[in-house]
Queue: 4 jobs
Job 1
Amino acid sequence: MCIRDRVLKSPNHFGCLNSLLAVFPDATVVHCYRDPVVALASVCRITEVYRRLLVEHIDLEELGASQLEIWAAMADQHMSQRQNPALDACVIDISYEAINGDVVGALREIYRRRDISFDQATEQAVIRWQDQNPQHQFGRHSYSLERYGLNKAMVESAFANYINRFS
């Protein structure tokens, strides 16, 4: 069962609630919040991997600085848009840890907020999918802020408003 007939899963929608809800006015946005210190290191790593497909040399410190600037600006935009009660009402906040720790519980909450029944068949399908697709089944990715010339204090400073709301 699908909550709606369209699911968009992309962190690139972060900071774009106005546009997203203008196109999909009945949408529910599930905001999976995660510690920016961990998330930004992951973003830098995946950006590095993609860029290596196109170019041989990558300035990792420039990559880190640019990703910090881009994602911190999107976080600020997201936080600003969440000040609008009409936009904020369309968002369900669930932590990355909650989803990984209890996906059924997280989905129950999403369905409850949308006033949709979360039946036994849906629950069993979720559990079956999760059992067949364990996290890290193809290995763990490793990444660090330091590889990209960043550190925890830099990220925490750039994402202070976001961290204050979602810590």
Job 2
Amino acid sequence: NLEIKCIHVLGMYRKNETYLNSFLADTLNEMEKLYDNIEFRYYFIENNSDDETQEALKNIIKNKKNSKLFIYNLKKDYKNIGDGRNFNRTSTLAKIRNKLVDGCIPFPENEWCLFIDSNIYFKPTILSNIFLSCKKPSDDNIGMMCMYTQQLLIPNIHSNTKEPVLMKHFYDTYSFYDKNKHTFYPECAFDKCLICSKKPSEVKRIPLESNITDISSGFGGFVFIKSDILNNSNIRWGTVCYNKDNNQSLCEHVLFCDRLRSITNKRIVILQNVDSLYRTV
């Protein structure tokens, strides 16, 4: 009913052979069959993998109309230090994401771009859930839709449980700022979280009944952005180092979202009820 004719799927991948072959390839094919009235175009960038990631991506876009694979091999790759807020990692991810988008534009206007991060798991029916939850995003001046991506706790890595456990915890706390520009890091901002809601907070958390919630910044690894926004070369990812001694930098999505809001005056929202997504690490 929304007459969505095309969805542009973008992703950045590095050493993700298992994820691509065991999950993403099959799931994207199922989505194409389920939504056979929509054209899916794929734009992937692969960076410095020493496994079969590049070959897996080639297989995904093989015979896909108007799809592209970009190869970007850094001579010196970034390192994920500590909690991942180090400047080298954050600035490199911003650079790769910008390179991907700049290689794809211009997108047709009034269409949607879907960013899927590595190791994000979801059901093919998720698109119906998104656009049932937010039926008229363009009419409501929404330029970016984030989802409630949960963290999957894995035995011997995150918890002492014998089986994997979903804790209703929004994993991407680094990028998340509420509508008043408050960060909850390292906790998440939601009352529905079984971990963070038990902890005291000076800032009010997002209540359970709030489905479409305006935010200042977010990502979550499964994000819809209006194509018109990405066509504007002034709206791109970036970071700044705010603590040199501890090598901590601002999340690249915070600057992107700030530019999106200030330049386009469009809303950024999170769909709290679209929560059938999880990330393993």
Job 3
Amino acid sequence: MWTQSYDRALRDAVGLQSEVAQAIAREIGAVVTPEHGRRLARSTGIAPIAAEAYFKGRFYWNRRTADDLLRAIRYFEQAIALAPEYARAYAGLAACYVLLGHSSMSVLRPADALPKARAAARRPLALQDDLCEAHTP
């Protein structure tokens, strides 16, 4: 079984993700093209506090209750305020509005939620059009 230890400063937590992804790819024999390497590296440079807010937002988004989605929105907005270029945070925000506007959720009317989702979804596409999360809300 493959194991590796990583000891990094908290300020580089997002960069660590990229390094681990590349190490896993090497270990399983996947070919990481220069373009894929650039994509992985693109996620670095985000302030750790913004990344933490984003991850908290994803945590609450995954719980899929109305209250948790509203909480997730606050975390995504916090991440965006800290790092306006953080494409994943905009994608998370869009995903929240899509769910809140869904008829089964009955939190926001679709006419109110979907324009917010659309606006939030356009931003990550402008920042990083190859980001999968930007195409899935």
Job 4
Amino acid sequence: MTLRAGVVVFPGSNCDRDLAEALRRAGAEVTPVWHKETALPPGLDLVGVPGGFSFGDYLRCGAIAARAPVMRAVAEFAGRGGHVLGICNGFQVLIEAGLLPGALIRNAGLKFVCAPAALGVGTPDSPFTRLYVRSETITFPIAHHDGNFLADAETLARLEGEDRVAFRYRANPNGSSGGVAGVLSANRRVLGLMPHPERAADPALGCVDGTRLFAGLADAAAAPRALEGA
């Protein structure tokens, strides 16, 4: 069974093609989904919300995009147990839409950070991280100004206790609480992360650590019980 993915496109998205290409390289069928659509294409296994500067980051990063018509459909899809991946600005959109906890605020140094980031794998227990090994170190690029993950002590304790920290910075580049770089939803089917796995999914880019994220999703789709049971 082939992974069927939709990639949402907002005005200001600039990583939608990168995400679509990474998914296609993993064998997925990919359909772009414009932000004004009120329904998703039928039969999707995954919705990707890409990086970029949706709506110019006006008001607050991801705040306008989270209220786009398509995001109601994405929230309903997630509510039915669908898989959703939000990268960088996509992570901001998912938080603003209430699909993930916490907040993403200005980097602690108040500067845009663009560099490779060493990450520790927090958990292999999700469709997104199933091909990684707990605590191994991988590298994904980062490129953000508002990637400082903020959560109160109770929320952080819950994320840790439920094994929902997907990735953690080895050297915290933005001041994120607990070094959190990516988190999972309670049902483990929604992942948001600031680093860019799609920019680490081609040898020409100098790093292929992101390929396992997309390959894991594709492999899970090929064995539907693995995707449904994650």
